[in-house]
Amino acid sequence: MDIRAEVWSPLQNTAVWLGAWLHGLEATDNVIDALADLGADGLVDVLGDIRRSVGLDGEEPALRLVLSGPGEAPALPAGSAAAEAASVSSAGALVLADAAPLTHHILVPDAEGNWEWFVEEGPLPAPAWLSPGEADELLTQATNEAARLVMASGYTTDALASPRLTVGTLADFYDTPGLPAAVPGRAAKLFARADRVGAIIETVTRRMNDHRIDPQLLGLWRHIRAARMAGVAYAVREFGRLT
User: Which domain of life is it from (predicted)?
Assistant: First the structure.
């Protein structure tokens, strides 16, 4: 199993850059450069279609991130082509709100970097709509509980006792290529916490090749995904308030 695909999301930053661009807070050239850095070059050719399709004045964020993983189906209509594609993709999906009520555009990348575009008429499954504070608290609680279980098992490692020392080599990878300047601090903090917890998990399970505490660590995946989705939704809402 690809641990990095579960704990890191380049689609998170892709969503934030697109959201800032859609709300006029980033220049097109900057977005194109960011998409190239994120491996999302395939979206460059459809930026015009994205701008024409998205509705910026609705109650929901103009753009959302949908992530899924083991034991968690994507929050898309069950049995739909979009849900099937998102379940197969390790990256997740982007959901664009249309100007027409109850219409959504769903973009899903495949392993080759190509993107499928789906249109869903009708309501989508309701996301959790966590605030950054709620998502951060859930991730913190889950991290603390995992640490407690690990300590109770008698297992110790520098990766848990001093994670900054062991995940330092991953820091540049998780931080690149950064976020738009307009990203609110609360969202950036939430992304940073999700990145740090993801780096710890990768260090222990992949870099150290130690799987004795997988059940404790892998239980954090759901909360990492929730934090990333909440951060994107919050950031895009705030972009709308700035314009």
Answer: Bacteria
* Of the candidates 17, 20, 61, the residue with the CA atom closest to the CA atom of residue 39: 17
Same domain, 97 and 150: no
161 is a domain residue:
yes
99 within domain boundaries:
yes
Q: Are residues 141 and 205 in the same domain?
A: yes
pLDDT tens, 56-83? Answer: 998 899 999 999 988 789 999 999 999 9
**Both ends of the chain: CA-CA distance in Å?**
42
168-175 vs 185-202: helix crossing angle, rounded to 10 = 140
CA-nearest of 131, 82, 139 to 232 is 131
Question: Is residue 121 a part of any domain in this protein?
Answer: yes
For residue 139, the surrounding DSSP H or E stretch is helix 132-152
Q: What is the pLDDT of residues 167-188, one digit of tens each?
A: 445 555 555 568 999 999 999 9
> How much is the average pLDDT of 115-121?
97
pLDDT of residue 176: 56
Q: How many structural domains comprise the chain?
A: 2
Taking alpha carbons only, the member of 127, 100, 159, 154 closest to residue 227 is: 127
For all residues of the chain together, what is the average pLDDT?
A: 85
- Edge to edge, the sheet with strand 93-97 lists 63-66, 93-97, 103-109, 115-121
